[in-house]
Amino acid sequence: MTKETKVRLISAFIVAPFVVACFISYQSLIGLVSAIVLLASSELLFATLKKHRKNGILVVYIALLSAFPLFFGIWFLEQPMELLSVLYIIGIVFTLFIVKNKEIVMEFFGVYSISFIYISMNLSFFIPLYKFYGAAVALLTLTLSWAYDSFAYFFGLSFGRHKLSKVYSPNKSYEGLLGGIFGTFVYTLIYFVIINSFFNYSIPLWYSIAFAIITGIMDTAGDIFESAIKRAYGLKNIGRFMPGHGGMLDRIDGLLFVAPVIYIFLKLFS
């Protein structure tokens, strides 16, 4: 085992139990989502805009992005678009007052807009997942990404031959994708059997097939999307929040695409 692998494992064993513990209550989940949005959006915003030395506007952006899941979960669960629109407009108006250089203003608009949809809104899907489908389903959504990444890494390392994205993520392979989907299917099937048997759930077991396919496709797409951002900036990692893992955004990139689609699937089929 390499030194880097040991560091990754130690970091994971420290952070993972804390994250899982936050699923004990609805309130702690809201706090967790808001905190992760704060960290992940900070990484993307500073990586993009720190060269302009306007830290005040970055603080405002981060506050607005972090406020969305907080307000959404507590007061606006039935009116998410109204809340999203108001907070978004506040940030845009603030930008117009602070950024006076028309050569760079679109850069501020762009990364703020991406951060709102990509990070704050997408991660906030955990809130209705928890509220309407229960803690076990919300926790499963989180661990789906962990399971898929682990299985995809193993199968890709062992059998990977055909590259999935040579430009943005050359280490990914179709073998890793298919192996990850298979492993995630087995994990999800076992998870459903356990919660159906010992808790108050009656989830159809065929959902495990859908969840595995959704996770494989969306997690991979999310990872490649974030890899494209890093390559555009010439960075190995967006941040350094977790030793051996990179930044917070590096840890949740796939999850940001998985959570919304899992919620939409459940809303359509449950």
Automatic annotation (TrEMBL):
It is found in: Cell membrane. The chain crosses the membrane at residues 7-26, 32-49, 56-77, 83-99, 111-130, 136-156, 177-199, 205-225. GO terms for molecular function: phosphatidate cytidylyltransferase activity. Keywords: Cell membrane, Lipid biosynthesis, Lipid metabolism, Membrane, Nucleotidyltransferase, Phospholipid biosynthesis, Phospholipid metabolism, Transferase, Transmembrane, Transmembrane helix. It holds the Pfam family CTP_transf_1. The keyword Membrane applies. It catalyses: a 1,2-diacyl-sn-glycero-3-phosphate + CTP + H(+) = a CDP-1,2-diacyl-sn-glycerol + diphosphate. It is a multi-pass membrane protein. GO terms for biological process: CDP-diacylglycerol biosynthetic process. GO terms for cellular component: plasma membrane. Its EC number is 2.7.7.41. The keyword Transferase applies. Pathway: Phospholipid metabolism; CDP-diacylglycerol biosynthesis; CDP-diacylglycerol from sn-glycerol 3-phosphate: step 3/3; Lipid metabolism. It comes from the Bacteria. It is an enzyme of class 2 (transferase). Belongs to the CDS family. This is Phosphatidate cytidylyltransferase. It comes from Thermosipho africanus (strain TCF52B). The gene is cdsA.
